[in-house]
Amino acid sequence: MKELVEVIAKSLVDNPEEVVVTEKENEKTLVVELKVAPTDMGKVIGKQGRIAKAIRSVVKAAASKEDKKVIVDILQ
Fold first, then answer.
1. What pLDDT is attached to residue 67?
2. CA nearest neighbour of 59 among 46, 74, 47, 48
3. How many domains does the chain contain in total?
4. How far apart are CA 58 and CA 42, in angstroms?
5. Pairing of strands 29-35, 20-25
6. Whole-number pLDDT of residue 5
7. What is the DSSP letter of 14?
8. Entry pTM
9. Cα–Cα dist 48/15, whole Å
10. Tens of pLDDT, residues 12-66
11. Which end of the chain is more exposed for a tag (fewer CB within 10 A), N or C?
12. Residue 43 CB: number of other CB atoms within 10 A?
């Protein structure tokens, strides 16, 4: 999941070298944290959160075959 979020985020932002993705795993939950440059936050979130919602949907679809809940957090 980390690689998937990283590829998507790097393709959206102007500063792909500042994209940092970390994973924290519990028993049934995987938390993926995405950090981008402050100037790129709008590109990752999108108008009314549409891009962030789309990223979460893609990750959720990819995680469905692993039977885990995945939470994508976008951090500043």
1. 79
2. 74
3. 1
4. 19
5. antiparallel
6. 95
7. S
8. 0.89
9. 22
10. 999 999 999 999 998 889 999 999 999 999 999 999 999 999 999 999 998 888 7
11. C
12. 15
Supply 33's token pair. Answer: 């944290």
The pLDDT value given to residue 64:
86
CATH code for position 40? 3.30.300.20
| Range of the structural domain that residue 43 is part of | 2-75
Report the chain's C-alpha Rg in angstroms: 12
**What is the C-alpha separation between 25 and 53, in angstroms, rounded?**
21
pLDDT of residue 76 exceeding 90, the answer is no
Residue type, 73: D
pLDDT value for 32: 95
- The residue with tokens 């970390």 is 22
